[in-house]
Specification:
Number of strands of chain A: 0
Number of domains of chain A: 2
Mean pLDDT of chain A: 88
Structural class of chain A: mainly alpha
Helix content of chain B: 55-70%
Largest sheet of chain B: 2 strands, antiparallel
Strand content of chain B: under 5%
Mean pLDDT of chain B: 88
Helix content of chain A: over 70%
CATH architecture of the largest domain in chain A: Orthogonal Bundle
CATH topology of chain B: MetI-like fold
CATH class of chain B: Mainly Alpha
Distance between the termini of chain A: 25 Å
Largest interface: A-B, 105 and 107 residues
Oligomer: heterodimer
Strand order of the largest sheet of chain B: 1-2
Order of helices and strands of chain B: HEEHHHHHHHHHHHH
Largest sheet of chain A: none
Number of domains of chain B: 1
Structural class of chain B: mainly alpha
Order of helices and strands of chain A: HHHHHHHHHHHHHHH
């Protein structure tokens, strides 16, 4: 396991080392083949897609699949809609979750433990269980077929999990910093805004990335609340693609690839925050 | 933390409030967004759902009180029974398989060889593929005639399998698909493994412990909080499986992938039976509570915590 440096039996160590390498490559192949298959299939002609045995190299190479897939439905519009919703969600979470988290982490007041208990109680309750009554509430408010149901609720605390995560982070910031500011006459709100928010940048980026991904990938919310096709997100657009049988596999796979690429790019540009976020959620949970 | 000694007394404004009172006001201002959100988007819908459970309403004609009719229906609804069966089979198969696989991969990538970062990335990437895109990709891989998986099986001399048309194979297909996306759990395990101090292994070495011995008696006990965390997250996520079932099989074949959330979705938004959908939502809530409770009770006190957190 982690102990290749402790070698008592050199022969068996060597065998173990090679076994590890073999397994690493074996599972890398298994995990990666679906991606490769998606990518090559998305460049194939309809004829080559329906060919047995399947081949790995697209011949002819048909990048036009992407143009056809992304113009068959107004994906540019869907992309814009997804971006608007995801950006608003990120703003909501970064500001309101950190605001609440500051109160839970740094202000000592009566009732704090009770309300933090409420945060923890809602931590493991997914929003799925409330889709039915929430739909009725949003219908009553006249919010159906707008972006409001997918954005406004997040401005109220930004989700228990994000509050929890940021509270944990705020608690690691030395109290002396806040004390020094208080002596200079800074209010609690000033301390939050001028000291804690800038210091929490790595944690906020992490929370922001995960919020963005959740909004980008969500299907249940958009298909319930968004009715007219010009309001669709990328996820809803791609799902409606799927339900129309006249659309061929080459286009479906091209559109699926196009939806995945931004996510993978986001991962590569923000890898460090990404991994940190997952680790933070796991080890401090 | 703030206490009276470190906080200077307010000099400028002769306040009507004591320090503790002012702190309480400030504290509540900070957590107001959460409190309002809890009332608007949690408490209110929960009450609406409770009320709805006793109504019959199709969103068009006026809602009508029907007493316990929706709750009675929960107990003699063959489709619900099938839906629960599918959800449980999926959960109890995919969560343990996924956890063991994630743990295994984490052990595998917890080595220091050149290029290990590439392997970590490859193992992790499937977990961030959007569910909709993943569903399309796997629907194509599982395609009976032209899919990659059957092509491989046939190349090895096997017979092709109707992955998404045969009830029991559809379940297997969903489990395979979920196992592919265990990257998040794997990263959490990896971080846990890297947090185990070397001294434990050195002590085990002095005792002449072999690899298996170290895995069972050092690694796994020390990892138990992390395993516990991944287990709960795994349960909660698998109870909510929806997108793949909607897009790949639409609940079929023979309702074998009509998982609970998909059944709620259908009842509410396709059959527009809001009252019964609310009753089903309560059932989902109830199961999530029971599971969290059992997991905490049965496993919670066996989990070994090295040191209390901050």
């Amino acid at each position: 396991m982690a102990l290749s440096k402790v070698s008592r039996k050199p022969g068996s160590e060597k065998a173990w080392h090679w076994l590890t390498i073999f397994l690493l490559f074996f599972f890398a192949a298994i995990m990666f083949i679906p991606f490769l298959w998606l990518l090559t299939s998305s460049f194939k002609t309809q004829n080559q897609i329906f060919q047995y045995p399947p081949s790995w190299i697209p011949n002819p190479f048909q990048p036009g699949n992407y143009v056809r897939a992304l113009t068959y439905k107004p994906f540019a519009l869907y992309f814009r809609n997804s971006m608007i919703i995801a950006t608003l969600n990120v703003i909501a979470v970064v500001f309101t979750a950190s605001f609440c988290a500051y109160g839970f982490a740094r202000v000592r007041f009566k009732g704090r433990e009770f309300w933090f208990g409420v945060v923890m109680a809602t931590l493991f309750l997914p929003y799925t269980i409330l889709i039915v009554p929430n739909f009725l509430i949003f219908t009553r408010l006249g919010w159906v077929n707008t972006f409001l149901p997918l954005t406004v609720p997040l401005f109220f605390g930004g989700g228990a999990f994000n509050i929890f995560l940021l509270r944990q982070f705020f608690r690691t910031i030395p109290e002396e910093l806040a004390d020094a500011a208080r002596i200079d006459g800074c209010t609690e709100f000033g301390i939050y805004w001028r000291i804690f928010l800038p210091l929490a940048k790595p944690a906020l980026i992490t929370v922001g990335i995960f919020t963005f991904l959740a909004a980008w990938n969500d299907l249940l919310g958009p298909i319930i609340y968004l009715r007219s096709p010009d309001k669709f997100t990328v996820a809803a657009g791609l799902a409606s693609f799927r339900s129309q049988t006249d659309i061929s596999w080459d286009l479906q796979l091209a559109a699926a690839t196009a939806m995945t690429v931004p996510v993978i790019l986001l991962f590569f540009f923000t890898q460090r925050y990404f991994i940190k976020g997952i680790v933070m959620s796991g080890l401090k949970g | 933390m703030i206490d009276a000694k470190t906080t200077p007394p307010a000099k400028t404004k002769a306040s009507r409030f004591s320090l503790a009172q002012r702190r309480t006001i400030v504290g509540y201002i900070f957590i107001t967004p959460f409190i309002l959100g809890f009332i608007f988007w949690f408490l209110t819908p929960a009450l609406v759902a409770a009320n709805l459970t006793f109504q019959k309403w199709n969103l068009i004609s006026a809602p009508r009180y029907v007493g316990f009719q929706n709750i009675e229906r929960l107990f003699n609804d063959p489709i619900l029974l099938q839906s629960l069966k599918s959800t449980f089979i999926y959960t109890f198969a995919s969560v343990p398989i996924g956890l063991i696989f994630a743990f295994f991969l984490a052990l595998l990538i917890n080595t220091q060889i050149p290029g290990i970062a590439i392997f970590r990335t490859i193992y992790f990437l499937p977990s961030i593929v959007p569910a909709v895109a993943g569903a399309l990709l796997w629907a194509w891989i599982f395609n009976t005639e032209f899919g990659l998986l059957n092509a491989a099986i046939r190349a090895l001399g096997g017979a092709k399998i109707a992955w998404l048309q045969e009830p029991s194979w559809a379940m297997v297909a969903f489990i395979i698909m979920s196992t592919w996306g265990v990257g998040g759990a794997m990263i959490i395990f990896l971080a846990g493994l890297q947090g185990i101090p070397d001294v434990y292994y050195e002590a085990a070495d002095l005792d002449g412990a072999g690899r298996w011995h170290k895995l069972w008696n050092v690694t796994i006990p020390l990892m138990s909080p992390v395993i516990f965390f991944n287990l709960i997250i795994g349960f909660i996520n698998s109870f909510q499986v929806f997108v793949q079932a909607l897009l790949m099989t639409n609940g079929g074949p023979q309702n074998s992938t009509l998982f609970l959330v998909l059944y709620i979705y259908r009842t509410a938004f396709q059959s527009t039976n809001m009252g019964y959908a609310a009753a089903l939502s309560w059932l989902l809530f109830f199961f999530l509570m029971i599971f969290s409770f059992i997991v905490f009770k049965v496993l919670g006190n066996r989990v070994y915590y090295e040191a209390p957190g901050n």
